[in-house]
Amino acid sequence: MRLSRAFNRSLWVFHFNSGSCNGCDIEIVAAITPRYDPERFGVRLVGSPKHADVLLVTGPVTHDMRDRLRRVYDQMAEPKVVMCIGTCGQSGGVFYDSYNLDGPVGDVIPVDVYVPGCAPRPEAIIDGVVKAIAKLERLEGEQG
Ligand code: SF4
Questions:
Q1: DSSP string, 49-117
Q2: The whole model's pTM is what?
């Protein structure tokens, strides 16, 4: 993949668990370990959505997490990209039709990149990050 000049800085990522079983979250942790080391490309997790370019969401969005997810999304500066990690956030997955779900994620906030799987492998998550970079490049190019 060829990166344009439009996106010329590190990619900062904020992780939000909207009610996942923790399986997807463990795979995100695996994706940032030294085995893959995405930090050498400037990709790193940050502690505040206000600093982030990308929002990683795991889980099907429980009723209690709906407003929190919306607030976190609203705190991010433009341009921003949302990645939905795992089948639960995409469709409800194994929690589909559960009594306390307000999801899937796409019903609560706009999603740019879906990474399906239960749980997706680290390689699939990193592939999703590459797609997120491409989307951010387009957005930054449009902003000039
Ligand atoms: S997709 Fe699978 S691993 Fe991820 S939160 Fe749902 S049940 Fe857990």
A1: GGG-SEEEEES--BGGGHHHHHHHHHHSPSS-EEEEESHHHHH-GGGTT-TTB---GGGTS--SEEE-S
A2: 0.92
